[in-house]
TrEMBL record:
This is VWFA domain-containing protein. PANTHER family: NORD PROTEIN (PTHR41248). It comes from the Bacteria. InterPro entries: NorD/CobT (IPR051928), vWFA_dom_sf (IPR036465).
Length: 584
């Protein structure tokens, strides 16, 4: 297990990424029962920073301190915030949908075989049933509280605090603020809630929801993900949820990323070749981002169109610099290509005059007294550019789109076939979005359609790109990966090479995390396999300082870190020059 400091850093990074802001110190973090950074709740904390005035939320929590049920009230508030941030963020961050569904399944699994102790427990169960699109079953009181507690997307910080004050006053006989909004006001201390078997005071033993304790300094890690309780079989209802969830996965991927560009039979054949070992039971979805027109797809298309506009605007704002970078990179590539081409000298009617042949023009009327040097192209080459399209790149989307475009445009001007794609992992799928293919020399601007979602399963992405590189038509192949050097996928990987099925508790037996050193080694292994197979693999680093060494381990000597935009063409140019010079 990684030390607490490492998990603290990981939790902070998830929070910063979801917040879209790296300039603050997180007031709280979330951990599971193993002390691991909890992915879902840390992104909720980050989203709360993104969409609400978080200092007001913290101040509100402060008004609860000193009350014996402060923990319960805070966690009810967090359920409301979770709902509000999900609705606010779904359009621009569609990957939170599968994250939320997975967490809801885990939570409901923990309740299997147990009876809710009171309405507070029922509120939690009903909330996560709704998250899965199911009917919220519970007492009328629990359902009524939940209806008010699930903050909607239109509510700002002041509105959710007013709503929470109303809930605490109306249902718990508690006023967090006095009439001036300054001091806590207590009512009678003997507050009671209706329990399914009678009545009991809230200060008695608290079950699952009450253990979800956020402190003002740090989340205390009482989320029980995959605990040992309730291992006996799951209810038929939950099994039906699981089966439907798995059946709907492919349709979900289609509605959020576009129709597949490869027929189902072809996809299954590729999965049989590529989704093995550490990536067993993973699936592939290759797409050109063309949607069929469902309601969910329309929602996603709108978000993608907005990000495309942002990417283009960012590029155009720096048009002069970017045009210069393209020209510089193009010159480097052309110069290297020229040195690798064989030359032939042919007699010609124009070119360099051959003095000793002049007499033939005078006496024999022969115009072929010139020599023209022809360079015969011997470089049978294709280049694949693959962009890390995971949510960890959210704050860098515009610059990554620009970098991908600059490389592709430079290579296109040199007549080199280029394919550009992005990758991310959502649910059990590696999604490969192809923006332009080798022959599509007029489609470089499609790269500005780059958006991010989900996680990054670098090893499977690299394996897939290497398998597809060149399409069987080119002898020399180069794969350029724009990466943050931090492979991370919640789907995990098999320890035995065979990935067992998912349990309803959210655990995957025999599986270890696809993150940290294990993820780095998996990606590095695929790079080494590619090099042994004769394909050059170049890593262009686009991540945080802490991941530089990991990226270096993955890509070895063919690794470049871009210190500033102005150096982009020179750094990438040197790497390409080295690879081109070594080709036959």
């Amino acid at each position: 297990m990684e030390d607490r400091g490492s998990e603290k850093a990981r939790a902070s990074n998830i929070i910063w990424t979801a917040a879209g802001d790296y300039a603050f110190k997180p007031e709280m973090r979330a951990y599971d029962e193993r002390g691991k950074a909890d992915i879902y709740w840390n992104q909720v904390i980050g989203a709360a920073h993104r969409y609400y005035e978080f200092e007001k939320v913290i101040a509100f929590f402060g008004t609860l301190e000193g009350d014996r049920n402060a923990v319960i009230f805070r966690n009810l508030m967090w359920l409301g915030i979770e709902n509000g941030t999900f609705l606010k963020g779904l359009e621009e961050r569609p990957a939170i949908g599968p994250l939320r569904e997975a967490y809801a399944l885990k939570t409901l699994g923990k309740w299997e075989g147990k009876e809710p102790y009171d309405e507070v427990d029922e509120i939690e169960i009903a909330h996560y049933r709704r998250a899965l699109g199911l009917k919220a079953e519970g007492t009328p009181l629990a359902t009524k509280i939940l209806d008010e507690l699930e903050f909607d997307a239109s509510m700002d910080t002041d509105m959710i605090i007013v709503r929470m004050n109303h809930i605490l006053e109306g249902y718990f006989e508690f006023l967090p603020l006095d009439e001036k909004g300054m001091k806590p006001k207590r009512t009678r201390s003997g507050r009671e809630m209706v329990h399914l078997g009678g009545r009991r005071r809230l200060t008695q033993g608290v079950p699952y929801l009450k253990r979800l304790s956020f402190g003002t300094a740090e989340y205390n890690g009482e989320i029980r993900i995959g605990d040992a309780e309730g291992k006996s079989g799951f209810s038929l209802q939950l099994l039906k949820i699981r089966n439907k969830w798995e059946q709907d996965q492919r349709e979900y991927i289609r509605s959020h990323f576009g129709e597949p560009s490869v027929p189902d039979d072809g996809t299954r054949a590729l999965e049989g070749i590529l989704c093995t070992g550490n990536h067993s039971s993973c699936h592939l979805h290759m797409t050109r981002g063309i949607f069929a027109g469902s309601e969910a797809s329309a929602f996603v298309m709108k978000a993608k169109a907005r990000q495309r506009e942002i990417n283009i605007r960012h590029y155009e704002e720096n048009h002069a610099r970017n045009s210069n970078l393209i020209s510089r990179l193009e010159r480097r590539i052309r110069n290297t290509m020229l040195t690798s081409m064989e030359s032939a000298k042919l007699k010609s009617e124009s070119g360099s005059l051959v003095i000793e042949k002049v007499w033939r023009n005078v006496h024999l009327n022969d115009d072929m007294v010139f020599i023209r040097t022809l360079r015969e192209k011997t470089m049978d080459l294709s280049v694949d550019i693959m962009l890390d399209g995971s949510s960890s790149q959210m704050s860098r989307q515009e610059s990554i789109a620009a970098q991908g475009y600059i490389i592709a445009e430079s290579l296109t001007r040199c007549g080199i076939p280029v394919r550009v794609s992005s990758f991310c992992s959502v649910r059990d799928f590696l999604v490969l979005n192809i923006y332009r293919d080798y022959e599509e020399i007029k489609k470089n601007r499609e790269i500005f359609g780059y958006t991010v979602a989900g996680f990054n399963r670098d090893g499977l992405a690299i394996r897939t790109a290497l398998h597809l590189a060149g399409g069987g038509k080119y002898q020399n192949r180069i794969l350029i990966v724009l990466t943050d050097g931090d492979p991370n996928d919640m789907h995990g990987m098999s320890m035995s090479g065979r990935l067992p099925g998912r349990s309803m508790s959210g655990r995957l037996p025999g599986r270890r995390e696809y993150a940290g050193p294990a993820g780095v080694e998996d990606a590095a292994r695929e790079v080494r396999n590619g090099v042994r197979g004769g394909i050059s693999v170049i890593g262009v680093f686009t991540g945080l300082d802490k991941n530089v060494e990991a990226a270096r381990k993955i890509y070895g000597r063919n690794f470049a870190r871009i210190e500033s935009p102005e150096k982009f063409a020179d750094v990438v140019g040197v790497l390409l020059q080295n690879e081109l010079a070594n080709m036959e």
